[in-house]
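Final report, Chapter 2: Outcomes

The project's central promise was a pipeline that accepts a single protein chain and returns its three-dimensional structure in a standardized token representation, suitable for archiving and comparison. That pipeline is now operational. To close this chapter, we reproduce one record exactly as it appears in the project archive, with the input sequence first and the structure output second.
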Amino acid sequence: MSQTLSTDVLIVGGGVAGLWLNARLRAKGYATLLVERESLGGGQSVKSQGIIHGGAKYALHGALSGASEAIADMPRRWREALDGSGELDLSGVRLLSDAHYLWSPGTLAGNLTSFFASKAVRGRVDQVKGEQLPPALQNPKFKGKVYRLAELVVDVPSLIARLAELAGDSLLAADDIQPLHDNDGQLVGLRVDGREIRAQRIVLSAGRGNADLLASLDVPQPAQQLRPLHMVMVKGPSLKPLYAHCLGGGPKPRVTVTSHPSADGEWVWYLGGDLAEADGVARDEAAQIDAARKELSQLLPWIDLSTAQWATLRVERAEPAQSGFVRPDNAFISDQGALLVGWPTKLALAPDFADRVLSHLERDGIRPAAHPALPELPRPVIGRTAWETAF
């Protein structure tokens, strides 16, 4: 039998939420060990658009919802971390854009939506024109309105790499994860590839993987819901950077565009929003690409897509099950004794997720304890983005 390890907090799931939590705990003196069965960030994190939302897109009907209030402080906290002055030092992480934009294509409904959004987010929106416009919209044919949001867009692989650095020796690649109980049947840790790891608290932050982990632990709650998306990627020499929600007349952005650099110097546009939701999920790849092509040709007719390459990606965002399948407003943590089960529900809410775990530890009087140094452990690799493998 391999040597038994001990730690204060054992985290399962190496997406941004788990890695952020790991770094926060280590900064506060806790011994941690983070276990990942696949690649770091390889689930939902590298499939996200990297937008650090401040809630503007949830306010498109002119009223701030619980979601927009809860998330409003996230851009500030991320910005401070990226500046090296926040709760974590993320100063080496690549910032793709210092702002995200709301973009109305010029329809009456879109303009009204922009107007209400600008009122709802209480001065966190400024209209931009001319050279202040995103490069892709700086064209004489563009007749819409654009509002600059106090949000930002990060390069997720760069973020994961930095969080992995902050993890030091606390990362463990694993294949098999099983519960570890004491003689009274209480969960005291996990058996990872046959090695016993004991911990004061165990945190599940594995996104979609939480459901399988809970089943293996014979823990029926909390239940999980999956919110499917059918994202579109387009790569071509005519694309210029664009980070924006294109508004329609409804409560959701018509399309959300983020831009990501590829190895050959061209830009890849990653398309989400309403395009990727219900109707998009029902389409096959060819139909979804056709729908995206029509959307872009209608919204941005001056952009030459004749030589563009296209691909799609299906994503299942994992969340705690909610009545009516609504989207949770905040990060979520469920207390199961020594087991804490959580979902950040959104990339931007990783700091909120860590706050909630720390609050549970403080409530339960869990303090850093002395543990033997960890041996050299096999480390998980960093996940690759979809556009790295698609093009």
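Archive annotation: The chain is about 25% helix and 30% strand.
This record, like all others produced under the grant, will remain available to the consortium after the project formally closes.
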